[in-house]
DNA sequence: GCTTTATGGATAGTTATACTCTCCATATGA
DNA sequence: TCATATGGAGAGTATAACTATCCATAAAGC
């Protein structure tokens, strides 16, 4: 197919597709003449993935490129791929806590990882995010959340076990690579959305039922 | 304190603080004369919260303003506040799936919520995100993830129960409001970071141990 | 065969966001 | 008293993500 059909089928405008081609988010089609190229279903699929990463996961274009590059390099093992996706997806966090709080958080995280027996590289980008988040939680007085790390980690471990198993069982290496990307990034959105809904449900159950008389914004059930 | 000290103590530059004042992210200090104002520890704290939302949660300034407005309106119940924070935090997702996939996803989500007995408003923003995410998962061939909704929801419910309880037990209504914001937004980062670490750990355990000789981070298989 | 539309490729322009800079009249502090 | 800081307002800047315009050529419709 040519760019027009690719555009129609994906819902992405032709100029935007051209932009993605320039930015390396989409490989160019096979040229049949100097100004005609042939795009395949693989291009369509890739384009859908790009839109998912940009529109749904809100990754910046530069990060999407990083993700896709690691996806296309076939010299990586599954574990290597997972690491590459993590690095592409997790930017080094802007420092948002003061150094004191960060130091304490670092110690807490180190201890936590050791207690858990988690085999992770000490410079994994997620660790920096975790440290910064905990440091901020402490300086904002929500140490209770930071102290529940194990509760969250238990669930995270269960998720990870299922997810890694599911991904590893795919037959085709290309599918594996793509699945890592999709599962890591869209899975996060899924969990976040469900958590918000659960908040609504639980707050309705715990807070409206027992006492409180009339709310306005909400229908009282 | 005056703006200089606020800047030194928060690590935020004076021009940026002025920008936040203009944008309504920070209430102005009490004027003692036409060009002298007095800032308090509450300002410092608010500023730290703003930086956390911007640097750590990557909320755009306009969203931060929405969040803080709902935080400052004291006419809302706890449940109302939670809803307001959700709305401020969850942008309507860009359509990233085709209409067919979205329709199917909508049905799946409706059924799922009913089966769970979750009392949520049908136009909760998280539902739209959930629908769009599931639609994309389907059109990218990862229906297995979308089919595990209950696994994720079980965990989300456990999280929510703890979190809502913790927040509701705060004595001061102002603290409650702020806790909702912090817990909702930073809690998500916490969970996401732990999930990534768990991925690393689990992939090391499941994939390196069984067979493969020595990985270093790359190659082999 | 001829006109209209579409295409690949390149370059320039646009919009939005998040600051950052410059002024100015006034206030503070050494 | 005089350099420095302040509140407030307006203009300027950097970056990201498109969007528009050109052009020579190719395909499609008549």
Automatic annotation (TrEMBL), chains A, B:
Record-given protein name: MerR family transcriptional regulator
One Pfam family named in its UniProt record: MerR_1
UniProt-listed InterPro entries: DNA-bd_dom_put_sf (IPR009061), MerR-type_HTH_dom (IPR000551), MerR_fam (IPR047057)
Lineage, opening ranks: Bacteria, Bacillati, Actinomycetota, Actinomycetes, Streptosporangiales
Tree of life domain: Bacteria
Domain HTH merR-type: residue ranges: 1-70
Organism, scientific name: Actinomadura alba
Keyword terms of this UniProt record: DNA-binding
Gene3D superfamilies: 1.10.1660.10
Tagged with keyword DNA-binding: yes
